[in-house]
Amino acid sequence: MIKTNCSNTILSSSSCSRLFNLKDLMLMKRGGKIIYFRELGQNSSKLIECFEGTSGVQKIKENYNPATWIS
Question: What is the pTM of this model?
Answer without folding.
Answer: 0.66
